[in-house]
Specification:
By secondary structure, the chain is of the alpha+beta class. It has 3 domains: about 5-95, no CATH class; about 110-200, Arc Repressor Mutant, subunit A (Orthogonal Bundle); about 225-355, no CATH class. Helix content is about 50%, strand content about 10%. The protein contains 15 helices and 5 strands. The protein has helices at about 25-35, 40-45, 50-65, 70-85, 90-95, 110-125, 160-165, 185-200, 225-230, 240-255, 270-275, 290-305, 310-315, 320-330, 335-355; strands at about 130, 140-145, 150-155, 170-175, 180-185. It has a 5-stranded antiparallel beta sheet. Helix 1 (about 25-35) packs across helix 3, helix 10 crosses helix 15 (about 335-355) and helix 11 (about 270-275) packs across helix 12. This is DUF6456 domain-containing protein. It comes from Roseinatronobacter thiooxidans. InterPro entries: DUF6456.
Amino acid sequence: MSAQGCIAGETPPCRGQARADLIPVGARLYLSHVGAGKSLRALGKDHGCHASTVLRHVRHFENRRDDPLVDEALRRLDHALRDMSETLPERGALSMIPYSPVQTTPRPDPELEQQAMQNLQHLLRPKSLLIVAPDMPKAVVTCENADGMPQRVSVMERCVAEVMALNDWITCRNQGRVASYVISASGRAALRRYCARVGLAFQPFGAPEGQPAGRIRYGGAESPVTVLARRRDKTGRPFLEPRLVQAAERLREDFVMAQLEGVALTTAQDVIEALENRAVPGPNIAPPGTKAAGLRVLAVLRALGPGLDDMALRCCCHLEGVESAEQALEWSARSGKIVLRIALQHLCRHYQRMGDAQMMIG
């Protein structure tokens, strides 16, 4: 079996077969350490990163092996790696899972990426699930219809679901004889970036016939800020104070009220230019509250400045995970949460200077 088709394993090959460049960086390092037996220090030296960074990736994927799809994909990749090591020298065997410290985001297979993103869009719908079972050669996306009955929306090859799970685009909700998955915050962020790159609107499509598309409402997904707020230091103090969380929620509410949530603008500079030039896609006539919210978002991004504005936009508005934002902005590991806290401190001071005169409705 070639490395190009190692994720498919015993299942029939699918079009757009998973290639080595679709395997996340952490999975490659995990397989290099666990499957090929290379030390953490050697991997860090070869790939230009600290051994602790490699250890973090290894622990992350070891903990994720409770996920049936992740465990199955890693097992098949490990078997393919061992098969290749019998015919290739050690250095050649390790080359099947390349890692570049310069290019942290793998180049996707266009066809497989398109299939994954289409199914992520289906999973944006309320009460939609991705269903897999050990004896199922394919995975199915279902969505409840108006009568509350599950209705099949999409069918995909199993290798597509495995790639989605490896990249943390879906989260296992229930395990058992049949496992069900929902879209994760990382999946939403990946879908948003894909839509921006190919020029598509970030919205659900492929809804079952006769069922209108659901509206994504504010507060439907947990913000990375609230996740960080639950962390505490050695003294028991929260990593983010309540006032910082409130500032993040205020920015998020303004962002949604300004009708910017479904707009394919990934960087803060793009949002600033669109708001300054009044080039936000949508109806030309907007309610006064929508225009006022857009002006407040514009003032915030200007006040934060480069770097801080992108982190606040990704984590507070787009609900993108901190690690995902680090990779997109090409920052070092574990630096994102510090930058986010600094951005929220500046944001809190900005709102204090504004006072209650510019407070939003609700």
